[in-house]
Write a structure and sequence with these properties.
The chain has helices at residues 2-10, 14-17, 21-42, 44-66, 71-79, 81-93, 99-128. The chain is mostly helical.
């Protein structure tokens, strides 16, 4: 919501932007609420999908999955969320990553692989005792 408020404030008419701060806050708030209502009334299935599938369903699956893996593995998988977002944005939306994005993905994947190797080593040590 903070980003939406900032965007609305930057797009405020000059007379509102030059006026008192309370007027700018009220204008920005009303713009955000108006946009939210517009999205909800014109795209209810998209809002429902985003709420149920991408939020509630994935949280429920995460809870189930975390019951069968160690906490360190679960946290490493969960930390890869930005990587999955980049991958699906590339596959479905045609998004292109810049050098910084590729570097971030490489770092995340490297940390995950390191953590996975550490867990495997710990298991082998525990079984060898």
């Amino acid at each position: 919501a903070g980003w939406a408020l900032a965007t609305a404030a930057l797009q405020a008419p000059p007379e509102v932007a030059a006026g008192p701060l309370t007027g700018l806050v009220a204008y920005s708030g009303s713009e955000v609420v108006s946009r939210m209502l517009d999205i909800g009334t014109h795209h209810p299935m998209a809002v429902l999908f985003l709420g149920v599938v991408t939020s509630a369903f994935t949280s429920w699956l995460q809870t189930i999955g975390q019951q069968s893996v160690p906490a360190t593995t679960a946290s490493a998988i969960y930390a890869l969320d930005p990587l999955w977002g980049c991958l699906f944005a590339f596959l479905w939306l045609g998004e292109v990553l810049g050098p910084q994005g590729w570097l971030g993905c490489a770092v995340l994947l490297g940390v995950w692989l390191y953590q996975l190797a550490s867990v495997q080593e710990d298991r082998a040590d525990a079984e060898g005792r």
